[in-house]
Amino acid sequence: MFLNKITPILLAESTSEVENATSSAATNSDIFHLTSEDWANVWKKVVDWLSTTGIRVVIGLIVLFIMIKITNRFARHVRNRMVKRGSDKTVTSVIYQIISIGFKIIWVLLFLGFIGIQTASIGSVLASIGVAIGLAIQGSLSNFAGGIVILVMRPFRVGDFISAQGVEGTVEDIRAFYTHLVTTDNKAICVPNGALSSGVIVNVSAKPIRRVDQIWSISYDADYDKAVKIITKIINQNELVLKDKDIFVRMAEHNSSSIDIKTRVWVKSSDYWTVYFYMLEEVKREFDKAGIEIPYQKLDVNLYKQTSTK
Predict the structure, then answer these.
(1) Which one has a higher pLDDT value, 55 or 208?
(2) DSSP 231-262
(3) What 8-state DSSP symbol labels residue 199?
(4) Which of 16, 152, 156, 261 could form a disulfide with 160 if both were Cys (CB 3.0 to 4.6 A apart)?
(5) pLDDT tens across 291-307, in order?
(6) CATH code reported for the domain at 156-203
(7) Are 236 and 286 in contact (CB under 8 A)?
(8) Which of helix, strand or coil describes residue 303?
(9) Please, where in the chain does CATH 2.30.30.60 lie?
(10) What pLDDT does 3 receive?
(11) CA angle 245, 249, 252 (to 5 degrees)
(12) Do 227 and 218 form a contact (C-beta atoms < 8 A)?
């Protein structure tokens, strides 16, 4: 009795499963059949795109490549002409970067418009991306603003020797975000323009002449007048010292173990270190010949003998 009731149910379920499997197989067959039929249409669309838009893309890329080459040659030509005319190195570098980068951006935008891409929508997207990036790189934006301040105010130029932010060196290049320095031992230093524009900058090359300040110490037992005459003679014999400027040789201080003589002489900025080291070498040599003692730290020890009384 139970088998009589359950048999129709099992038959119905098996029949339903068979129908579903048949329907699924038919659907898969239809999909495969449609894909095979549409392949010709897809290939036709690809060929149509290549014969219309594809040709425009190829032509646009060729023209873009040619224009970039022309821009590079034109920018180099302008830079070379400015260098030959003796233009300021900073201005030359900035104009070269504006021509090289600015025109390339224009050519890319024209290329996108030529192949049918709406540049207005691209501009709005780029503006939105720019706002998001701006919030994320506020420090870089301050460096960019600092670069603009440096280019406008011109506290230093390419080729100047400066000291700032705890480093010093010759300015090799001034860029949008960083200023590149080269130290005297040929190390490259990148200084952020934001900190550079808001801090103290010592421009050693700003003026054509500089003053060399030095101090010479002699012992209290040495002949002061003789030492002054020796130093003055050494200064007058040096052709790099500017004789039309005041030459200062006077007693500066009474130290605990020495008399200090201070000298001030004026030289061209390019001759500063030559005169500085020349004075150090010659004064030491002449002091030794004249028997003038250059004091150094020493300790005097006195021994006292104590006798016992019986």
Answers:
(1) 208
(2) HHHHHHH-TTS-TTS--EEEEEEE-SS-EEEE
(3) S
(4) 156
(5) 998 887 766 677 776 66
(6) 2.30.30.60
(7) no
(8) coil
(9) 156-203
(10) 43
(11) 130
(12) yes
**Arch. (CATH architecture) of 209-290:** 2-Layer Sandwich (3.30)
- Nearest residue to 263 (alpha-carbon basis) of 251, 277, 245: 251
Query: Is the pLDDT score of 16 beyond 70?
Result: no
Report how far residue 39's alpha carbon sits from residue 42's, in angstroms, rounded to the nearest whole number: 5
Asked if residue 149 lies in contact with residue 196, where contact means CB atoms within 8 angstroms, the answer is: no
Distance of CA 238 to the CA centre of its chain: 40
State pLDDT tens for residues 204-234: 888 899 999 999 999 988 899 999 999 999 9
Fold of 27-136: Helix Hairpins (1.10.287)
- Asked if 218 and 249 count as a contact pair (C-beta separation under 8 A), the reply is no
Averaged pLDDT of the chain? 79
Report the alpha-carbon distance of residue 256 to residue 185 in Å, rounded.
37
CB 210 within 8 A of CB 204: yes
Question: Measuring CA to CA, how many Å separate 270 from each of 5, 11, 208?
Answer: 115, 108, 8
Average pLDDT over residues 125-130: 66
What's the rounded Cα separation, in Å, for the pair 274 and 247?
A: 17
Question: Residues for the chain: how many in total?
Answer: 310
Segment (H or E) for 107: helix 89-114
Q: Do the strands 201-203 and 188-192 form a parallel or antiparallel pair, or are they unpaired? A: unpaired
Looking at the predicted structure, is the pLDDT value of residue 278 above 90? yes
Q: What pLDDT digit, counting tens, does each position of 70-104 carry?
A: 988 888 888 888 888 877 676 777 788 778 888 88
